[in-house]
Amino acid sequence: DMDKEERKTINEGQEDEMEIYGYNLCRWKLAIVSLGVVCTGGFLLLLLYWMPEWRVKATCIRAAIKDCEVVLLRTTDEFRKWFCAKIRFLSVETNPFSSPKSLANKVSIGHAVGLIENPAEENRPLQIRYFTHHSIKYFWNDTLHNFDFLKGLDEGVSFTSIHEKHSAGLTKGTHAYSRKLLYGVNEIRVKVPSVFKLLIKEVLNPFYIFQLFSVILWCTNEYYYYAVAIVVMSVLSIVSSLYSIRKHYVTLHDMVAAHSIVRVTVCRVNEESGEIFSTDLVPGDIIVIPLNGLVMPCDAVLINGTCIVNESMLTGESVPVTKTNLPNPSVEIKGAGNELYNPETHKRHTLFCGTTVIQTRFYTGELVKAIVVRTGFSTTKGQLVRSILYPKPTDFKLYRDACLFLLCLVAVAAIGFIYTIVNNILNEVGVKEIIVESLDIITITVPPALPAAMTVGIVYAQERLKKIGIFSISPQRINICGQLNLVCFDKTGTLTEDGLDLWGIQRVENSCFLSPEENICNEKLVKSQFVACMATCHSLTKIDGVLSGDPLDLKMFEAIGWQLVAVGQRTYFFKEGGGRERILNPVFEIIIVPCCSLRIVRQFPFSSALQRMSVVTKVLWDKKMDAYMKGAPEAITSLCKPETEVPADFEKVLEDYTRQGFRVIALAHRKLESKLTWHKLQRDTIENNMDFMGLIIMQNKLKRETPAVLADLHKADIRTVMVTGDNMLTALSVARDCGMILPQDKVIVAEALPPKDGKVAKINWHYADTLTLCMSFPQTIPIKLAHDSSEDLQVTRYHFAMNGKSFSVILEHFQDLVPKLMLHGTVFARMAPDQKTQLIEALQKVDYYVGMCGDGANDCGALKRAHGGISLSELEASVASPFTSKTPSISCVPNLIREGRAALITSFCVFKFMALYSIIQYFSVILLYSILSNLGDFQFLFIDLAIILVVVFTMSLNPACKELVAQKPPSGLISGTLLFSVLSQIIICIGFQSVGFFWVRQQPWYEKWHPGSDACNTAGTLDWNSSHFPNETEPDEHNIQNYENTTLFFISSFQYIIVAVALSKGKPFRQPSYKNCKFGIDLIFHL
């Protein structure tokens, strides 16, 4: 029971779910730790700085979360990362206008918040306990008996509540008090750390601490030159690292700070209004959206009017989006009063922070108003910034294996450490020398330059990617891209051209389809309802005189040759039912001279949930109104008059078009009764009993390079999958056209039906080309997926296709089928953004390294979740994905995989080379220690700088191979082949060093070392030297100048170069080493 009290979960079911433990500071533990810090010379303090879990457990004792002083947090994902936070108190003085209980309700604006409430103590200040983690405040909630972050109006608030309780605004007192209390400043503050803070953080990196330890050790051993060289290199490394980190912070700060503080007009209770700074906004405030727009400082839900918004900052999609007011259940949708508002589900009514409102439209004199629902880091933009500031660690086998390998080197170092101590004690060496030499062996075995060497390949790959227009905000992922074996592609704008071309129309008369028509501008059609629908049913708008909006709408509008005119600031009066109506800016007028002039008086924008949009229009100065609707054919026909209006062959005609890859849009029309007033019309009132008018057929052409790129990927045995929001048959047609599904391959469509009316969920399987049912049993899949022989595989390949609804049902009700479907699923149609992310996760669960290529618009989640997400965007670096390609072509995918493979193989080569360099030098020093000798200062300097550093930097320069091969690079260091190559090289190197060491001692001219001897300048062989420089040699106190030293130095120097050549692997992933000129010149120079 105590354990339950001590461990709870916060953000349950969310991406940032964490376990939370309570602790209180313990004085006696603190005293012991302080003593330990002094005794270890501060090393214990460093260790506790690196390990938050140890820090808390070493200085605190467990306590109930309710009363704790410190919380320890652990993520529940595979990384299990620890964080700690200090509990703080928010002191709330008694409020003159309310008791604490009512205060809690007022402040939380419809939400239970964890205030410590006690009505009996109304005169005493309230103490609210909270802690801050990753820029979000978590408050203690007495109701939940847990910490929870404070929500605005984005959860658990109904449509009715928004329109009735919150549409009046806040009083000045509540606003000031709630802001002061809990929500704080509405600002996404990205602090750019000072250079000093960054320097301290960077220097306290374990790698630099180890280097500092090494430098001190070398200085005590009188290796001054070598120590200075390493210090200079470290300083240069720190400076470049600080520059890039600070630049990243400054870029992010500038991106966030732009327009972060603006003046906004807020409406208060009793119809008061006033201007305040956007930083003072809190959830529940009502802001007025000005006529000329603004950059949104918060997330808000529209309650009056319409806005045209550019959301490219969030989505990468530059097409303006129309936002409408949230429906009012009391007036509009009957029976929907209990529907809960959610910013993501109801994004058509939500203005997101950071997006730009370009224009507003409002009717009947009402101001365009929105209620603030989220502020600061809780907004969509805030969450995006948090994901950049606090990224998830990258899990990659290479890095885990590298750590294991380092542990092996540490074990080798421990053996050397023990050997050195024993050997020196037996030879009666002084204590100081024993300590210095035994510690020195550790710095030799675990090379301090290893992390820097490992990133060289990535840096070079990043530079090469930049040259071909691919930018990265996460360079560490380049290596992971070398492992990709499956790539998901969005369809529209990625595999196919961005826009659609109008192929033609097919009208309906007397419940029969007429022949398809290509020319829409002919005399007969100009006055038809069909063309009027094309002219009015869209979300286009004029911005600075230029028509902009959805590319599909633009193509349709351009095809009919009409004009769109914004009425501007003029006020129009017209008679309706005997009264006078006033319309305020901007209403649109569509004019074709001299035929007719239409005005849009009401617009219901396209909703992806409803798959349709509609408008109400009237001929200028006429009372009669018409309603036009367009959308997905299935959705439109379901709202048309019973069977009589829709042609009998509708499904066959539709299937013929979609099978050929055309995008089909249906149109419908209805004359409205004259008694209806336009501003009281509701969507569900007009969107029924429509007359079906016909189809618009749009053509979506494949990009020229698509088939060739997909063929290259297939040749390299990389699976390709299509994930699209488009319809199934169109997606299948494009998949066949681009070669994703070959002509002889069979496609099975899985249609999953959720449980309904007491019936269990089931799956219907049918072939895509025949639409005949294979079977309706969920337990088995209709084909033998586990092929017995490769011959079966060559005869027929099968692909699964399904839509988003079926995918969700299968995920929920048929978990056991998911892996099989993931292994053979190729086309996923009508997928919502969150379903795309779920698909990526499902593929990763069956051990695929998944790449995702999309336009960044509705693929943000999937691009981030994939191992390698690449966004086709003109922006240099999109925050939506790790990689961004400036050229909107999928040819960037094979380029990224090629460079990833080259970087990965380079990392393997460098790692093996650095490990072998350590072992070679380690064995040289161990042999020399046996005769109480060592390598000299300049010898270490020459090996590390002139040989190792230059070799590492030049051997990493091999560019990527020009073509993708089917062979996959190894995923980790711990594999039989790699270990065999390293071990065999170690044995060869040790053998040659041992032979050289013992062979030189057998030579007739060999002389055992004594303090006055100099093996480099012997009297017998170098007479000329001794006669010319009689007093040049100083006494060799450290036993450096001996035959064994010289022999091992020369042998090991050649071994480093030979090992570099042996490990510098070229084909099939990198170009051959003989094409790497700098490496070749370096080798010749050394030899």
UniProtKB/TrEMBL annotation:
Q: Which residues form the Cation-transporting P-type ATPase N-terminal domain?
A: 167-218
**EC number(s) given by UniProt:** 7.6.2.16
- What is the protein's membrane topology class? Multi-pass membrane protein
Which residues does the UniProt record annotate as the domain P-type ATPase A? 263-388
InterPro entries assigned to the protein according to its UniProt record, in alphabetical order: ATPase_P-typ_cation-transptr_N, ATPase_P-typ_cyto_dom_N, ATPase_P-typ_P_site, ATPase_P-typ_TM_dom_sf, ATPase_P-typ_transduc_dom_A_sf, ATPase_P-type_domA, HAD-like_sf, HAD_sf
Top-level lineage group: Eukaryota
Keyword Transmembrane assigned to the entry: answer is yes
Q: Where in the cell is it found?
A: Early endosome membrane; Recycling endosome membrane
Reaction it catalyzes: putrescine(out) + ATP + H2O = putrescine(in) + ADP + phosphate + H(+)
Provide this UniProt record's keywords sorted from A to Z: ATP-binding, Magnesium, Membrane, Metal-binding, Nucleotide-binding, Translocase, Transmembrane, Transmembrane helix
All copies of the P5B-type ATPase N-terminal domain together span 14-141
What are the GO BP annotations of this UniProt entry? intracellular calcium ion homeostasis
So where does this one cross the membrane?
28-50, 224-245, 402-421, 441-461, 908-932, 938-957, 978-1000, 1046-1063
Please give an example of a GO cellular component term from this record. late endosome membrane
Q: Write down the top EC class of this protein.
A: translocase
Task: Select a single GO molecular function from the record's annotations and give it.
Answer: ABC-type putrescine transporter activity
Sequence similarity: Belongs to the cation transport ATPase (P-type) (TC 3.A.3) family. Type V subfamily.
Q: What is this protein's function per UniProt?
A: ATP-driven pump involved in endocytosis-dependent polyamine transport. Uses ATP as an energy source to transfer polyamine precursor putrescine from the endosomal compartment to the cytosol.
| Protein name, per record | Polyamine-transporting ATPase 13A3
Which organism is this entry from? Loxodonta africana (African elephant)
The gene from which this protein is expressed is ATP13A3
